[in-house]
Amino acid sequence: NKPNVCAMQQVKGSDKKYFTNCKQWYHRKICGKPTVITYECCPGYEKISGEKGCPAALPLVNIYNTLGVAGASSTQQYSERADLRNEIEGPGSFTFFAPSDGAWILDALVSNVNIELLNALHYHMVDQRLTSEELKHGSVFTSMYQDSTVHIHHYKNGIITVNCARLIKPDQHATNGIVHVVDRVITATSSDLQVMIDIEDDLETLRTAMAAAGLTTMLEGEDQYTIFAPTNEAFNKIPAETLTRILGDPVALKDLLKNHIIKHIHCAESIVSGTPMETLQGTVLEVGCDGEQMTLNGKAIVTLKDKLGTNGVIHYINELLIPDSAKTLLELAEGSTVSTATKFFVDAGLSSRLTGSEALTMLAPLNEAFKGSETMSPDFRKLLTNHILKDQLSSKSLYHGQELETLGGLKLRVFVYRNNLCIENSCIAAHDKVGRHASMFTVDKVLVPPMGTIMDVLKADNRFSMLVGAIQTAGMTELLNQQGALTFFAPTDMAFREMPQAERSRLLRNPQQLSSVLRLHVADGVLVSGGISSHIRLLSLQGEKLELNMVPVVEADLMATNGVVHAVNSIIKSLRESNFQTLQMIGLKRFPTFSGSSCSICCFLLISFQVPEPLPTRQHTEPFFFNDL
Length: 629
Known about the structure:
By secondary structure, the chain is α+β, with helices and mostly antiparallel strands. 25% of the residues lie in helices and 26% in strands. InterPro entries: Adhesion/Biosynth-related (IPR050904), EMI_domain (IPR011489), FAS1_dom_sf (IPR036378), FAS1_domain (IPR000782).
C-alpha cells in the first residue's frame, strides 16, 4: 500500500492529463483516444528515497510560491510583472484559478500593459478559500476583478470547470489560500446568450431566425442553455428552397432552432465520450468528442467551442441540424434505408405529394424489399400510390382490425401481433419518422394489397388447380368467399401429387373426409409471416392446434380481402389419422424474407406430436415453421 499516491490518466500523444479516483474512471479511453495510467504524489506530498509512496508532507507556502511547484510558473512570472506578488504572498485567503504554463502559450492575452494583466489575473481569483469539493455544480462566485463573476460546473463524471476551463490540478493548498491549475486563461463575461448572438457577424442568419421564431426572450432570461449555433455557412449549405420553406413556416422554424438548444451548460471539457442529450425540440443529440474535436452525432462539425455567456454557452457548428419535425416526406426518406422506394415514388410522379403540406403517411419499403426488376408500369405506379395513406398517423395509435385508406382508394388492414405491427403483409421495421405534415413508416416488404377473396386468390394461381377442385367437392367455396378473417395454408398441386395415388383418389372422391382435411389447413384470424414468433399456436377450423415448426411454406402472404394464403407443398393430416407418426418433410424451399421482426419470418409446416431435433440458430433469411400439437 503506497501512501499519498494519486492515479493519473494521460491521453496518448498529448499533454492532456486527468487526475483519477475510484469515482472518476474514464475506462482507459478519453474522447476515443487511449490513455496511459501513471501514478504521482498527491498534492502536498513528496517521495522519500527508499520508502514506498509519498510519505513526506511538504510544508505549506504562500500562493506565489505554490504557483511555482504546482506547474503554473508562467502565472507566477506574470503575477510578478503585474505587481500582484505582494498581494498573493501577504495575508488573506484566496482561491487562485491559475492557468497552466501551456494555457498562457495558447492565449493572446499576455500584454506589456501591466494594468491589463493585473485585471486578467484578478479575474482568476476569488477572495475566499474554496476546495474542489466546495466548487458545486452551477455555483457562481464573485471574482476580485470589478465584482465580475466566475461560473463553476462540477459534472457527474468528476470534471470541474470554471468558465469552461477544466481544473487539471486541483487543491494545491497554500498558507493563504488554495491554487487550482486550469487548462486555459478565462475571461470575464457580462452578456447573455441573445446579446452574444446579436453582436456576432457569423451568426447573422441565426439571429434573424431566432427573432422570427420568437425565441429571443428565452435567451435573455435566467434559465441556462447550451446552444449549438449554426453559422451563416451552415445555413448556406442547405438548398435555398428548403431554407425558404422553413424560414416561412413558424412551426418548422421553431422546431429547427430548438433542435440546436439543450438545457443547462455543457462545456466542451466536460465531454469525455459520447453522451446522449435531449434538445428543447425533444430529439436526442449524441454530444461526444474525438481527440481535441467536439462532435455531434459522431460528426466533427463544431468549429468554435465554449463561448460563455451569463446564462449559457455557445458552440459554433458548420452544419444545420434539421429535425424530422421540420422535414417534408421526401426529406424524411433521404439518405436512409429506403432510398430505392424514394426514387420510385419520385419516378411515379408523386413528388408534389411528398413535398407538400398534405397530411399523409408513407409506407416506405426497405431497399432489400425490391427485387431489382421493377419497371414503372401503370400497375406499379398504382401500387406505389397505395403505399401512401391518407392522414398523418402514428404507429403507436394503430390497433388490430383498423382500416387505413390509401391515396389509391384501397382500404388496408392493420394486424397487431405480440412481436410485430403489420399493415397487410408489410410490417413496421423501424421507428416512425414524423415530419412537419406527414409521417413515414419503414416497412419490411413491398405491400401486397388484397384484390379478392381467398377463393379468388386460389383460382388466379395455377399452382392451386387441384385445390380449387377439392374445395368445390368439399363444399367450402362459400366459406372461402364470404367476409371474414382466415389464414389458409394452401396445399399446392405438388402437395397432392406427393400423396400415394390411391390415397389421393380416395380423398378427392370423399367430400366429408376432404372437408375435414382442408379445414385442418384453415385457421381463424389473419396471421401474416411478419407475425410469426417462437411456438405461436393457431386453432384450425377442424379444432386441432397448429404450432409453427417444420415443413416449408413455399410462398407466404398471398393477401385476400377475407384473410391470407400461405402456399405449402405438404398435406396436413390429423394426428389421429397418422397414429402420432411424424410426417416426412417434403419440398424444402426458402423464399425471400426481410428484417423487422424479432424472429425469423418465413415458415415451414409440420404436423407432428413429436418434438424434432433442435434447429440451428436461424437468421432472418430462414423459413418459418409449423407443428400440430
